[in-house]
Amino acid sequence: MADSEVVLEPPDASALASMLQTANANGQTVLPRGSGTKLMWGPVSTPIDAVLSTRRLATPIDHRPGDLTATIPAGATLAAVNELLGRGGQWLPLDPQVSSEATIGGIVAFNDSGPRRHRHGTPRDLIIGVEMALADGRAAKAGGRVVKNVAGYDLSRLLCGSLGSLAVITSATFKLAPLPPASRTVVTATTNVETLTDLALAIAAAPLAPSALEMEGPPYRLAIRYETTETAAERQAHATCAICDRFNVGTETCDAEREDQLWLTLGSRMQNTGGTLVKMSVLPTLVGETLRTIEHLAAKVEVEYVTIGRVALGVLFVRLGSKPQAHSDIVISLRRDVEAKGGSLVVLHGADALKRQVGTWGNVGSSLPLMRAVKARFDPAGTLSPGRGPGGI
Amino acid sequence: MDPAFLNELERSIRPGGVLRDPTELITYESDALTHLRAVPGVVVIPQSAAEVQAVVRLCHRAAVPFVARGHGTGLSGGALPSPDGVLVVLSRLTRILAVDIANMRVTVEPGVTNLAITHRVAPFGCYYAPDPSSQVVCSIGGNIAENSGGAHCLKYGFTVHHVLAVDVVLPDGELVRLGGTTLDPPGLDLLGVLVGSEGTLGIVTQATLGLLRRPEAVLTLLAGFDSIDAAGGAVSEIIASGIVPAAVEMMDRLTIEAAEAAVHPGFPDANAVLIVELDGPRVEVDELFSTVETVCRRAGAATLEVARDNAARERIWKGRKAAFAAMGRVTPSYYVQDGVVPRTRLPEVLARIRALEAREGLRIGNVFHAGDGNLHPLICYDESIPGQADQAAQVAAEILTYCIEAGGTITGEHGVGADKKANMPKLFSPDDLDAMHLVRCAFDPAGICNPGKIFPTPRLCGEVPGPYRRHPLEQAGLAERF
Description:
The complex is a heterodimer. By secondary structure, chain A is an alpha+beta fold. Chain A has three domains: 1-179 and 364-393, 2-Layer Sandwich (Uridine Diphospho-n-acetylenolpyruvylglucosamine Reductase, domain 3), CATH 3.30.465; 182-268, Alpha-Beta Plaits (2-Layer Sandwich), CATH 3.30.70.2190; 276-358, CATH 3.30.70.600. Chain A is built from 13 helices and 18 strands. In chain A, the strands form four sheets. Chain A has an eight-stranded antiparallel beta sheet, with helices on both faces. In chain A, α11 (327-340) packs parallel to α12. Chain A starts with 5 loop residues before the first strand and ends in a 15-residue tail after the last helix. By secondary structure, chain B is of the alpha+beta class. Chain B has four domains: 3-89, Uridine Diphospho-n-acetylenolpyruvylglucosamine Reductase, domain 2 (2-Layer Sandwich); 96-213, Uridine Diphospho-n-acetylenolpyruvylglucosamine Reductase, domain 3; 215-329, Alpha-Beta Plaits (2-Layer Sandwich); 331-417, Alpha-Beta Plaits (2-Layer Sandwich). Chain B contains 17 helices and 19 strands. In chain B, the strands form four sheets. In chain B, strands 12, 13, 14, 15, 16, 17, 18 and 19 form an eight-stranded antiparallel beta sheet that branches. In chain B, a hairpin with a 4-residue loop joins β5 and β6. The longest helix of chain B has 18 residues, at 388-405. The interface between A and B is large, with 95 and 100 residues.
């Protein structure tokens, strides 16, 4: 949690901008907060003067089903949003797993996503417009309410993943998807790393359209989800089982409650239950090698761990459990390995000492000075979320 | 232009790369928006990223503005030269540098054409998804500048959804990498704001793009309707039934006739045609396609052809993609506009356009991406009649106000460029434009990179809007600004 006594809870976007303007004028620092489900992610928190909560910016949710779009205030939770959109047969196809309380603003600020990223992408892929409060309290917007729009700079995408460092998101407009009529998930029996990755790549290369292609382990297994018409879901699940048969990997196909429970269990690995949680991004063909490296590093010091992720995209999360004193070395070695192959490793959650020793972000590359320049233009007084981003941004 | 500067330019790139002869310069005075013209001070045609960088460094040192140009197919004057500046032509950077099929990525130079990328990876069953109608000739660098879409963007998104990384020469000559070979590189998403920035933030010298696998099945239908409203009704029904086609295109009688005369696609004699394409796993496509057919018939389709094979499908698309160029057969000149409205407001906006057509006495053809509300009115005029070119431009501007009033936008694909700057304040408040300007100043504080595009009012980047506030740490001498 942030180190602050003061929590500001403006009733609407205009009041939010006003409070921000006051804080900015007084040289104070502010941390925007939705439900606070990811506040412990990122660098060691620095003292701030006030938390600026979007809790009361939760309504109205403007759903335009004929256009397959919706404009959503930043403080609305994704759960509440999809409950409402669902009544119109549509949804915002995001499934971040950290908490069902996560708000739209927070999800956009972290560009957070889950297993369905495989088909639907991240908030960055779905966002079409944004309203924001700049650090000096002025209100600004970018994009619009239509799916195709190239008028002006794409500040919507710039704000995705910006961690509250450039502006406070007050609302976001998204392109939606129709709610799929049916769902099937094929979950495999456990197998070794090589078979797991070969199988995953074979499924990804097949003429199938899964909404999720997820791995977890050890022990390693895959979960492949199809969300479409009843016939298409059933047939594609069947075809997936046939591929798994060729690799001598057993399968179980589930739907309804059993399927829901499976995905809840997979998602629970992401929930903040302690330990060290890191996110890695590697080339899809290097997932197997990376899993072997983690195995090797953890085995050397007898540290328990679990990995989940979007195996065909190369986006993996590792939670190290026991023996926290051994985690720093593992993370340092893992990051070195991953970065050498063009990837990245970010520390999401961990002890302060580990974050200080290891660094949250790793090597950000040649554009860091440019990132600083953008931050300096948007927030010259350093009001917003100081130190949350790389290079002190 | 300063002769010393020109000499330095010539020294910085290989022989033949600098054009100074006035007759050569005139060739580059416009892109495909031919009514906006300006002769550049000099044209340079680099053959490597290093040469691009050298040129930009010189421009920065001499405070000379520069404009980048791909293959000149742009429709908003984005590559309209600065008369006192350098036009940097990227058409010789045409190498495909790396192909990684296993990871579904390619790395290319900016002058590679959009379709050349797909051709290169086609033997592997892959393709590059964004497919603007000009894809045979348009450059990937231009696509990145404009965040180009194409008919299949309804399902597959735009250029920004498929670019993983770029090397970009910043306006001060620094070369940086934005994005990454892997997903979610840490830090601000500067790549996300660079794509679609219309060449105002730097020059891309290399891009890593994501590929897709060809879908198992593609089914395409061509339906003829007695009215645009009926065709529009079919589209609404398709969306309402929970189907997201890969593409939904509509053309009206005038554009159908033009296309038919030009490339003979065998379009029906109708007041409106709808092209609907579904793709994906066969089992899904077959089922959903029969729903689409039913919807079209119920909406009153007078004719309905399902493409039997690839040749038939290509024939139908040839008719659609030839529409703009084909207009040359039915009118001496035409002005293409590019507005977007929420799909549900299309009927109302189209009715206003029909009234406008009657009032002005200029025929207006309509081709549009019906699935996402992006319309391309084609305003016919005769350049040889005094004042008609201006009249056509005014009609185009009026159509844009209809789009704005219906909650849409002034450009879905072609960009703001020089053409639509004046309309930006109708969409965005001064504070909105200021916020965008913050990005421009971070990338290009000297204001030399494609100046005069997108934003209606030139601004100096030294200005910091609002009262300047020193951070307390700054005041105490404990911290510095970057």
